[in-house]
């Protein structure tokens, strides 16, 4: 379970300085040169589908690697690290463990996903990934925090799923959805409970492409809080396109904030999809309308398969961009998404170390 009352210490820190988020788990995993056998381990050796792209499974098969990544990000200066649970729901994990009905002429639909939600294997797997991922992050948050005297926090990462509640994949039937709101809600509730059980201090609904999926996640989190009789801070972070719209639901930044303000998140922010230069105008719009803290953890530029990390920007570039964001009064939390290694996060931490945090508007 979470440490006693992390919320008050976290809120106090946010009044004093810009807090630092971690970087890209997937990018950093790739630097370890793992093979398919590492992802499978003995436990999943006979699985039919490849698991190497299932980074969340490494919390079970290579927890030493995931723990080392958390250690490196915390030691680089991250105040908050996200758990390795971006796809740790039964719905997302089914992509790696269940035959796709489309391969036999069928389709994915609510009946298919009802079977997924009823799968004891997938539910137990999702639970274990969330609990163990939170525990390994908790271990290094506590150890580095003890070693440095600076408290560190665990953010339970709740990702966007591989299905959409907003759009139909069938051009002949615009009302069709592959999954229902209640099914997505159920999967997210299971994930939230696992993250809390493992010791998360914060729940972060992140990389929001589809605002309706995120709405289901927010409802799930609030229902779990009510059922457990507790409340943890919530951070919401959207991925936006060039025009500042969430990429599936096409909700602009201000509309996104208005849709989720009632959740009373600790912070709302932007991440992924764009490099810091392209993200800046949308961050400005969010910082101008949000009546809570603002976070930003952009990609290290746009994708470039020829670059060592798959993205163009090096640590010094991220330092310069995030330093400028901080000077402009746009940030309360800063970090990096795709392409950002511990070295990038160390540069970001230096960039914001002596900058004042954005002033949160006082609501009457």
> Which whole number gives the mean pLDDT?
95
Largest sheet: 8 strands, parallel
Helix content: 40-55%
Work out the radius of gyration.
Answer: 19 Å
The strand count comes to 8
Helix count from the secondary structure assignment: 14
CATH architecture: Alpha-Beta Barrel
Within CATH, the superfamily carries the name Homocysteine-binding-like domain
Distance between the termini: 35 Å
Given the C-alpha coordinates, what overall shape results? Answer: globular
Which segments are poorly predicted (pLDDT under 50) over 5 or more consecutive residues? none
Secondary-structure-derived class:
alpha/beta
Topology as a string of helices (H) and strands (E)? HEHHHHEHHHEHEHEHEHEHEH
Q: Name the CATH class.
A: Alpha Beta
Q: Assess the beta-strand content as a share of residues.
A: 5-15%
- Could you tell me the CATH topology label: TIM Barrel
Count structural domains. Answer: 1
Main sheet: strand order: 1-8-7-6-5-4-3-2
Textual characterization of the structure:
The structure is a single chain. With 364 residues, the chain is of the alpha/beta class. It has a single domain, classed as Alpha-Beta Barrel (TIM Barrel). 46% of the residues lie in helices and 10% in strands. It has 14 helices and eight strands. The chain has helices spanning 6-16, 25-30, 36-40, 58-61, 63-76, 90-97, 110-117, 120-148, 181-198, 211-228, 253-260, 276-289, 315-327, 342-352; strands spanning 19-20, 80-82, 153-158, 202-208, 234-238, 267-271, 293-297, 333-334. It has an eight-stranded parallel β-sheet. Strand 5 (234-238), helix 11 (253-260) and strand 6 (267-271) form a beta-alpha-beta unit. Helix 8 (120-148) packs across helix 9 (181-198). The two termini are 35 Å apart. The mean pLDDT is 95.
């Amino acid at each position: 379970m979470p440490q006693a009352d992390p919320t008050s210490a976290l809120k106090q820190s946010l009044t004093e300085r810009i807090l630092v988020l971690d970087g890209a788990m997937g990018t950093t995993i790739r630097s370890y040169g793992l093979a398919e056998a590492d992802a499978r381990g003995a436990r999943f050796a006979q699985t039919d589908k490849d698991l190497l792209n299932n980074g969340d499974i490494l919390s079970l098969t290579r927890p030493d690697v995931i723990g080392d990544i958390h250690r490196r990000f915390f030691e680089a200066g991250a105040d908050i690290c996200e758990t390795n649970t971006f796809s740790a729901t039964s719905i997302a994990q089914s992509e790696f463990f269940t035959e796709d009905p489309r391969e036999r002429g069928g389709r994915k639909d609510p009946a298919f996903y009802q079977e997924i939600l009823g799968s004891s294997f997938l539910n137990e797997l999702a639970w274990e990934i969330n609990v163990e991922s939170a525990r390994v992050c908790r271990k290094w948050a506590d150890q580095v925090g003890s070693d440095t005297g600076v408290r560190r926090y665990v953010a339970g990462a709740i990702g966007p799923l591989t299905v959409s509640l907003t759009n139909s994949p069938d051009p002949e039937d615009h009302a069709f959805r592959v999954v229902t709101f209640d099914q997505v809600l159920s999967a997210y509730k299971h994930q939230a409970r696992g993250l809390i059980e493992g010791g998360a201090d914060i729940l972060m609904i992140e990389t929001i492409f589809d605002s309706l999926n995120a709405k289901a996640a927010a409802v799930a989190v609030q229902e779990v809080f009510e059922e457990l009789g507790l409340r943890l801070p919530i951070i919401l972070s959207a991925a936006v396109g060039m025009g500042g719209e969430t990429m599936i639901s096409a909700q602009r930044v201000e509309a996104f904030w208005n849709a989720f303000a009632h959740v009373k998140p600790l912070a709302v922010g932007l991440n992924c999809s764009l490099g810091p230069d392209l993200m800046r105008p949308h961050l400005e719009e969010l910082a101008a309308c949000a009546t809570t803290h603002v976070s930003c953890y952009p990609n290290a530029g746009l994708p470039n398969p020829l670059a060592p990390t798959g993205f163009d920007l090096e640590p010094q570039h991220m330092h310069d961009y995030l330093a400028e964001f901080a000077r402009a009064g746009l940030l309360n939390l800063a970090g990096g998404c795709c392409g950002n290694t511990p070295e990038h996060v160390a540069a970001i931490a230096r960039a914001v170390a002596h900058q004042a945090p954005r002033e949160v508007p006082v609501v009457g």
